[in-house]
User: Fold this.
Amino acid sequence: MSDLQSFLVQQREIFTANHDVSRTWARNASAWRGGVPMHWMRDWAAPFPIYVQSAKAATLTDVDGHAYDDFCLGDTPSMFGHARPELAAAIAKQASEGVGFMLPTPLANEVGDLLRARFGMAQWQVATTASDANRAVIRWARAITKRDKILIFDGCYHGMVDDCFLALYEGRPANKKGLIGQVVDQTRTTKVIPFNDLPALSQALAEGDVAAVLAEPVMTNCGMIQPIEGFNERLRDLCTQHGTLLILDETHTLSSGSSGYTGAHDLKPDMFVVGKAIAGGIPAAVWGVTSEIAARMDQAQAKIGPGQSGIGTTLSGNALVMAAIKTMLTEVMTEEGYKHMLRGAAYLVAGLRDVIKRYDLPWSVVHVGARAELIFAPQPPKNAEAMRRHLDHDLLEVFHLYLINKGVLIAPFHNMMLISPQTGFDAIDRLVTAVASFSQELNA
Assistant:
């Protein structure tokens, strides 16, 4: 079937015919703006939301009784599997002893030591989301350096951080389109340049006004974009040369290994952020700093003096979160679990590349750790501008809906596929088979 719109109509009809219960729930959701508690829940390709009955390991079951191989995993919070019994037991125990005191428990010291041992940063803080953590480290970077600006890469996403809602349009920086209630031109305090562009990076930092570069070591939010060889190392060198702090946001690249991409590739950030999966989906993020940065924070705070820091929220670091993080670090995010994830990702990538080769498709695959991305381009793009040229939204929509109708979920934002420690190789085979059949039906 060559008509993409006809193919999409067909897939919508298949979905609608098989989801009567979800459709009923969707019709009765008028109390929610947009019909869902959080508007991103409408970003899936389905005509109406899939209502979830339960999820366990790497399988999600909807209210219509359909079981799905889940390669989305909540867009990362459930990266290590749904309903982990270790996590459920720890949460239940802590809930029976109290959840929020705005005071530490002895468990907090254990968690701090575990974070230091695993990720190498000397001192840590807990936030409620990665958005909060990124806002905190940006504030500290500005306080330490006495500089106003930060630098980000075109196509990035670092949570709900005002400073990061910039993009390049025909090479010119501007606030991202579609922002609601935005009253400040963020180009005043943020520089945005293409990823992998070392000359642009060198020029931007040489101006001496950038407090920090906030980056993912591999871009994962505009389709996956790998760094060119030596890019992250050169980024570190340029930041050091120009007195700019380097913040690495590993909320997604935590899938690279037990100590993230930073540990796997021996990177040297000044500040390190990770959210989503660190507490197994319980809302939490952590951020750490080197001992040198911790000392500079102390000096800056002494000069600023007492008052309201603008950093932190009441729910941050509560006892429930601490119980969850400890359990994840000691019982779930294990070396054995990561070995399975990385083996599964390699198996998935090999299967997808075999499909591309077998059917001579103009597609490619990029992956980092346990995260893979199918890109509708013959060669993986090296920056967001090039990636955007290949983001055919109609094609993405019909591809995602086709997979849903085949019992497979991938992240609704582009084509991210995530392997958990509980993902079976049989599920990976079903995903690869569905991709192959999609390519054939699309071109029939």
About this structure: The first strand starts at residue 52 and ends at 56.
